[in-house]
UniProtKB/TrEMBL annotation:
Keywords: Cell cycle, Cell division, Cell membrane, Membrane, Transmembrane, Transmembrane helix
Function: Part of the ABC transporter FtsEX involved in cellular division.
Family: Belongs to the ABC-4 integral membrane protein family. FtsX subfamily.
Natural source organism: Streptomyces similanensis
Transmembrane segments: 21-41, 179-200, 232-255, 275-299
Top-level taxonomy: Bacteria, Bacillati, Actinomycetota, Actinomycetes, Kitasatosporales
Tagged with keyword Mitochondrion: no
Record-given protein name: Cell division protein FtsX
Length: 305
């Protein structure tokens, strides 16, 4: 009987403050959708780091006849065969090096045409203008400086470039976007909590006569407070369900099907359903507990029992 009474009071309270309840649901849904999205973005960045850091190379670009005339690093002329053999031998001796791949001018020209064949500049480029290079796969990508310090300024070497620095800029940008999403989430969640407090206050005020009678007949404090707390919790839970549904819809229609970014952007290793599914219980728990806590705190001020 008590459970039935509490449930009926929850329904009455939600209907009585329908507009404010709707605002609470929308605010919680938006804030928790951002919360879940930020968690998934963190997973995405971690997965991309693991995927791309395993594939990045350090490139040693060698001097050719073209840059020997314009680049001060190649002032002594184009790289010689003896210099190339010496560089390769030293690379193979280094314990930080996992694998070394040589790219000739013809191979570099072929790769350039594959990537930039539609560019107007491509028609004016010839194979002899391309640079030979050594592509080094490191055992630990963090050890780029070992290669840079050993070969920068060496005869025949035009430059040493680390692909990790390019990826680091991308991951830094994604990190800032993640922080921005969490900041907006915090603001939205604060707004939702203020709405919950206000909704509980209005609900308690509109039912002050009923709660006064219950207090007179000896009802416990918890029994009087329970409907108000559960109203906030149920509204929050509905918002949490909407937020979880949003993540599922995005994963299905944007990542896997429909827009299908996983197909259109094969170079990005997107997070899968396992990441989405593991976030849903956390979102639902937060959507239930935080509004319930906000309702409880509001009652301590506006409903003396």
């Amino acid at each position: 009987m008590r459970a039935q009474f509490v449930l009926s009071e929850i329904g009455v309270g939600l209907r009585r403050n329908l507009t404010m309840t709707f605002a609470v649901i929308v605010s919680v849904a938006l804030s928790l959708a951002l919360f879940g999205g930020s968690l998934l973005l963190s997973d995405q960045v971690g997965k991309m780091k693991g995927y791309w850091y395993d594939k990045i190379n350090v490139s040693i670009y060698l001097c050719n006849k073209s840059n020997a005339e314009s680049d001060p690093n190649c002032a002594k002329g184009a790289v010689t065969e003896d210099q190339k053999k010496s560089i390769l031998a030293d690379l193979q001796k280094m314990t930080v090096v996992d694998k070394v791949t040589y790219e000739s001018q013809d191979q570099a020209y072929k790769h350039y045409k594959e990537q930039f064949g539609n560019s107007p500049l491509a028609a004016s480029i010839t194979p002899d203008q391309m640079q030979e290079s050594y592509r080094i796969k490191l055992k630990n990508p963090e050890q780029y400086q070992v290669i840079a310090s050993a070969f920068n300024g060496r005869d025949g070497v035009q430059s040493v470039q680390d692909q990790k620095s390019i990826l680091d800029n991308l991951f830094t940008l994604l990190g800032y976007l993640n922080l921005a999403a969490r900041g907006v989430m915090a603001v939205m969640l604060t707004v939702a909590m203020l709405l919950i407090v206000n909704t509980v206050r209005v609900s308690a005020f509109s039912r002050r006569r009923e709660t006064g009678i219950m207090r007179l007949v000896g009802a416990s404090g918890f029994y009087i407070q329970a409907p108000f707390i559960m109203e906030a919790a149920v509204a929050g839970l509905i918002g949490g369900i909407l937020a979880s549904s949003f993540l599922v819809v995005v994963q299905y229609f944007v990542i896997d099907h429909g827009v299908s970014l996983s197909t259109k952007l094969p170079l990005i290793n997107f997070v899968g359903w396992d990441a989405v599914v593991t976030k849903i219980p956390l979102i639902l728990a937060v959507s239930f507990l935080i509004p319930a806590l906000a309702g409880l705190l509001a009652l301590r001020k506006y409903l003396k029992v």
